[in-house]
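(Fold this chain)
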Amino acid sequence: MSSRNVPDAPAHTTSDTHTASDTHTASDTRTPSDTHSAPEADTKTATGTGAPGDPDPAAFAAEWEDWHRTKDARLASEHGFLAITGLHWLSEEPQRFPGVPGAWSTGPDGVTVALDEGTELVVDGIAVRGRYGFGVIPEREGVDAVWGDTVIEVAKRGGHDVVRPRHPDHPLRADFAGTPAYTPDPRWVVTGRYEAFAEPRPTTVGASVEGLRHVYDAPGRVVFRLDGRELSLTAFNGHTPGTFTVLFTDATSGVTTYAANRNLRVEAPGPDGGVVLDFNRATNLPCAYTDFATCPLPPAENRLPLAIEAGEKIPHERRPVTP
């Protein structure tokens, strides 16, 4: 069984709830509106204070380019998020989906597929035919079933079983030309401090799929200064022990950066609680590129009243087409 957590998205989901019905199909998914942008009352550009010991600009830019190239390559990998062609919510009634063999259903014993005669899937290296049961899949985990050059992700999101086919020849992947971003600038490397909560706080956030809710344990917050004001961001656990993931929006959200969310990895704090926030490495989550992702939205308190003109911008795939 493989876990397909969003890269650098929060880890350790405590629970997820879905308030909509089981009849969700890919056509029901849509990205959040631009109402997630920061308040218009204060849209000035923030200025970072810079981390101690300003780096050589050329070396800083080269390191950022290497990081960004690797990040985009992972996104556009053969069976990465850009290869997903649908998000299908399962029910007890068997259903067939485009680009996926067999009839799929779910119930108390988990996900089941009834394959047509002569069709086989490969699950964990073993060929399966006829009727096959995947069992009960834990929340935020999944199983990959291989069908030719297609990988069919069978997963649980928001308490509901889903099927997401990943076709390497999907036009979104084939036409991907990279993610636009602001020019990296050391001034957006900001020092701050991590403040742990007395107890982890279960924090409910929305998702890029209407009706879906994610619940994460927030272990603390990151406090820092921009433009002479003290700001803070609630932090979730990262995938690497000790690291954090911060989801946020700011005054660029819905203007030059993706409206719904921005994602920043924060390395483990030092002995004194000191942390570094490199906003040049603020990234898009998969929902910025595709409607077939279930990405979490930022907590309400993580909407910064400043313009963070650093990091990734709105993907080309989401920009309006000019006649």
About this structure: The chain has two helices and 16 strands. The chain has a mean pLDDT of 86.
